[in-house]
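User: I've been going back and forth on whether these two constructs are worth ordering. Before I decide, could you fold them both?

Assistant: Sure. I'll take them in the order you sent them. The first construct and its structure tokens:
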Amino acid sequence: MGANLPSYLWFTIYSVTEPMTTLPLPLYLGPQLPRWQPRTAADVQAAIDNGTLTERHWLDVKLTLGGSSHNKEIACDLASYANDGGALIYGVSEDKASQTLSLAPIDLAGQAERIDEIARSRCDPPLYVACHPLPIDPNDRSRGLLLVEIPPSPASPHMVDGRYYGRGDTTRRKLTDPEVARLHAVRTMRQLSAEQLIEQEIARDPVPPQLRKLSHIYVVARPLATPPDLLAEAIENRALGDMVRGLNHKLGTPASPHWGYLESEEPRAAGWGFRSYRMFGGRPES
């Protein structure tokens, strides 16, 4: 293989547009809190009892869906979560005076279909959501709670009747022009193809072409959205490096180069970099 023609392994990761399971994904509730995966109405009640279930940037509770006149409000709520991801739970009553929550089951028939129709027809571009009915009685699925999961959308921001919405600390708000412009810029960046991302990584290879005598593997993964504290602890205590090097023991060494070659690591503006060459005085050395 020519020294100036490094080969590369090209991974393409596609976002899932249809649910792969009927169970909700573990929900992010904020820093220092474990992810929450409610599977039953009893799980929601337990979260109320232990104080986990409170209105947050990523989570809100509603008493009912209301009639058809509330469809726009529902669309605005859904669109506001599409930027960072989040969830809505219908069938929970909030006492403003005492700041307490309690279960208030709703009729579930047709509600998931209604939410899906609103997300696809009232949000522009159409928004994907996943609805999870949580019956109060396992033997009677007609009444209970409705958990609506809104994953971070690669097409955000989503417009409703000419306006864009986002989430504040605990409430919905209209986005400003600069915020809308920033989100549109992020959307444009997401449209970069996998090939372009790989080409960018090849261009930043610290090893000069004349020293590339072995095959090079380039792997790039870019999330649609991330919690603000994602991997912060792993980066701070250098556990991320141990995790990456641990891949060598799981994957083995069927080919060269392999994960075991990653001897050097460095912080980067957009994350953490690992390479098989150590850098001394700005020059790569094996």
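The second construct, handled the same way:
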Amino acid sequence: MTDDCVFCKIIRKEIKTDKIIYENDNFLSIPDANPKVNGHSLVISKKHFETILDMPNSLGPELLDCIKKTAFKLMEEYGAEGFNVINNNFEVAGQVVKHVHFHLIPRKKNDGELNLLNEVFFEFFIHMKINYY
């Protein structure tokens, strides 16, 4: 763990979270502090890894367990019909907190949030075309 990492501080209980959605030996899921939609949650590794590339493969089953159990709880609690799992790695890909984490975003039919994602991808592709092609 690192001293200044916000997620490490949550794991060490130096920063309080409203609730823990699910927890196993190596992962924890909590509500996002700045949710994009109701139920937007994070799955966080308890050990500090900067990106998914730093995580050992042996943690894969436990990570998947935490993602699935969190998703089931979000679908039940928020009446979601589906969900997005998003993981950003490195600043260029949108990673803000340098501690591996996954966003789980509950979805409902016609919720309009997919349009937000399409806008983000459109802006990204325009940026790529202007700067690299």
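Notes on the second construct follow. The beta strands are 22-23, 27-31, 41-45, 82-86, 101-107. The radius of gyration is 16 Å.
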